[in-house]
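Troubleshooting log. The previous structure file for this entry was overwritten by mistake, so regenerating from the original sequence record. Sequence copied from the archived sheet and checked twice against the printout by T.R.
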Amino acid sequence: MGDIKKPSDVILVVSILYNKEDCLFIAMRSLTETFGEGRVPDYKGNFDFTDYYNEELGTPIFRRFWICERLHDRDSLSEIKIKTNLIEQKFSKEGKRQFNLDPGFLSTENFVLATTKNYTHRIYLRDGIYADLTLVF
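Regenerated output below.
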């Protein structure tokens, strides 16, 4: 029998999809107000793998990553996803989001994203939130 231990805390990473720079700054400010200080690496990528968000966000769509400076308890992923959904809703206009926020946890073992969409490889956490094992190290 293994000993039950609390796992190490993890890094909160939030993917931000946006079309306008002012929306990126609103998203970053909201994430900082909600979760604490963060940073955004210089990398800015185009998001053109799918047209899923085009009608809602407009084109072209860009992606940046916001990385929280403090570590988080792994048990908080569903709570964080609910908070990012509320941020998206707060800044929506005419029923359309101005940006998309996808939070996840980066650890020494893996990268796990939070999602509201169930699928065969996703594990239900709570409150309508699933964990998607996105990357294994």
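Strands lie at 10-18, 38-39, 45-46, 62-72, 99-106, 110-115, 122-126, 129-136. Archived copy saved in two places this time.
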